[in-house]
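Hi everyone,

Forwarding the result from last night's run.
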Amino acid sequence: MWRLWVPLCVLISLGVTSTSSVAEPVAQDSGVYKAARQRHGVAVIRVGLMPKDTSEEYEITFWNSIKDSQYASDYEAYLKAYPNGRFAPLAQARLARLHANASNPAAAPATHEASNPAAASPAQSPQSKAPPAAAAQTKAAPASAPPAQASAQASAPAPAPPKAAVAAAKPGPHDIQDCSSCPILIPVTPGNFTMGIDTDDASERPAHRVTIGHSYALAKYPVTVAQWNACVTASACPRLSNENNASPNAPVRDLSWDDAQQYVKWLSKISGKPYRLPTEAEWEYAARAGTETRYWWGNDMRKGTANCKDCGPPWHVEAPDDVGSFAANAFGFYDMAGGVWEWVSDCWHNSYKNAPSDGHSWDEPNCQARVIRGGSWRDGAGYMLAATRFKYDSSVRYNANGFRVARDMK
């Protein structure tokens, strides 16, 4: 009997997948994004001998999150992170096709190549889409949103009139703005809260008490395209693609952690204040705004409260809406759920075991993967939880990643 059991175990470990509409829990996060979360309604469950936290698994998970994308920047990000990766030839082919179609609008819509047998991972299997109701209840690997279908375009409402430059608005009576180009900040009163959640992903456990004893200020909105371009004009930040940063009042995106560091360095120089990225604990404390519920507004999803693909209007598939388009939380912060993923200062750890309890940054020497928080407009409602966290390579740009700034109050 054991002779039959061993091969079966090996087969399972090499990637037999479950197509349940509900994702099963996993022992730990296994890649750039969560490999065993439901994607398009299909949970990929890896058990047995498959490595849980290796560079190979990171690459597989990264590829799974973009392999159906129609955005050239997704494949460019993969090739930058894995120039000699197992999927590099396929990424290059899709990138070439997307560029060809962009230069020839009359070309037929791109269709994906069959998987390369030599490059195919044993951990992959065909995936199908689940009903929207099922997909909205669980988290999936952050998906690359496909172009809107013609039928959807036909029924879409007319574009909304241009919004005011929210991030450039006059600061409120308790807000801080250190210079004309500086983001508006809100002072955050020290306090304590429960960070993480024990009923969701393993990387968000254990839920633990954190006491923030220091005063700090956090940006009211994510950094906008216009604010980033002020740094570009000063020759202190790289110029970004207009493809992902067309609206001046939208959150700037397609940024790496390293890019964000350049911006805060410039901001510190022109303002004379100690600007930086927020720590992960500072970010979650501000996002929760005194609550301990799943979302900052309660335990149940409520339409129209976050900028995500199934969170209700205003929303469109092409890009995140302008900052401030959705309601602020109780502390006055906008867009802490959806819009763009936001870089924080901390190095990625697979769980909160041994995490600092004082709200300071949790760093490591030679750290390569940094934490991103908040979810994006391309993700589902399950990503809007206040505790949701992921990681990304600090030197790689991705078109759903942005940031907001913080500074010490001394």
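Residues 1-53, 107-162 have pLDDT under 50 and may be disordered.

Cheers,
N.
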